[in-house]
Design a protein that fits this description.
Blueprint: H1 2-31, E1 40-51, E2 60-72, E3 75-99, E4 102-131, E5 134-158, E6 169-190, E7 195-206, E8 214-225
Antiparallel strand pairs: 1-2, 1-8, 2-3, 3-4, 4-5, 5-6, 6-7, 7-8
Length: 226
């Protein structure tokens, strides 16, 4: 079931990405060299993601790749793919093992690991304007969030009569997806005619669970074409 959901998500993301590229490309070709707005740009950046969910008390490294195309001097569209990962590990020693009838043995060592991966795909419409070398933009849009949760557990040194459960590790995984709305605001600073530095703030609000809203802050470099 999880595999089918993930496959459907990947196919949906590919279809939306293809449509978005077409949306980005057509206005860019039509715009020509009018005005001082770049026709198309690709940005790569990194920063930090802060999930607001009560069970996710951490900040995770965030990276993103964003393509932007200008529909006019003051209006642009943006396609973004980003990801954060976080790993938590717990190690205990001399752990009692409980069964239906009570204590059934002990393990010398228990290791548990949880690996979380958040994939985010966004399509945004932004308004922007230039002030000197800086271009300010802001807006929002819709997207898809996919959270993958992998939990693994390993026991070592089990005492009789339960040594069998110490062989190998136990692992489970699940993936949950949700549509989301975004708010975006940022600034680009021209370094050269073809290169700009940028800083951006993104707020992602899942439709399935508003309590899982995330705030992402990133900085990076944008390559300008046209």
């Amino acid at each position: 079931m999880v595999g089918m959901r993930l496959l459907r998500f990947v196919r949906t993301r590919q279809a939306v990405l293809l449509a978005s590229i077409l949306v980005l490309g057509c206005p860019a070709l039509a715009a020509g060299q009018s005005g001082d707005a770049p026709r198309f740009s690709i940005g790569v950046g990194g920063g930090v993601a802060n999930p607001f969910h009560g069970d996710l008390q951490f900040k995770a490294p965030w990276w993103e790749v964003a393509g932007r195309g200008h529909m006019s001097e003051h209006m642009l569209v943006e396609v973004v793919f980003g990801q954060w990962r976080h790993t938590e590990e717990l190690v205990l020693f001399n752990v009692p093992l409980q069964g239906p009838s009570g204590l059934i043995g002990r393990a010398d060592r228990l290791q548990q690991q949880t690996r979380l991966t958040m994939n985010a795909f966004e399509f945004n419409v932004l308004a922007g304007g230039r002030i000197g070398r800086a271009r300010i933009s802001g807006g929002g849009g819709a997207g898809v969030l996919a959270m993958r949760d992998v939990f693994s557990q390993r026991l070592e040194g089990c005492s009789e009569p339960v040594p069998a459960i110490c062989q190998g590790s136990n692992e489970r995984s699940r993936t949950s997806t949700s549509f989301a709305f975004q708010g975006v605001g940022g600034v680009d600073i021209d370094i050269t005619r073809l290169v700009a530095a940028y800083g951006i703030v993104r707020l992602a609000i899942p439709t399935r669970d508003v309590g899982s809203t995330e705030l992402r802050v990133a900085a990076g470099v944008r390559l300008v074409f046209g």
